[in-house]
Amino acid sequence: MSMEQVEQIGGKPLAVSDRTVVLGTCYDYMFTKSSQRQPYNVSFDGKGKVDHSGFTTCAEWSNAQQKSRQAPKSKGVTGGAGY
Length: 83
Fold this sequence. Notes:
Blueprint: H1 3-10, E1 15-19, E2 24-33, E3 36-44, E4 50-54, H2 58-69
Antiparallel strand pairs: 1-2, 2-3, 3-4
């Protein structure tokens, strides 16, 4: 789905941000039902096509992507049988 198609369905986003981990764009929306508010994001790849959406803000999604791309930290375990 393109950015234009998303806007036709969801309207103008509350905020638009550039993605930093994987280049692209992210739209922030806020759903409201019975006075309860829920953030929702739609994220687009570099070609302007949806590649992710979810019930978080764009900032939260970006933080999750950054954490998943960080190298795992060494636990300092060395080789050997341990006997």
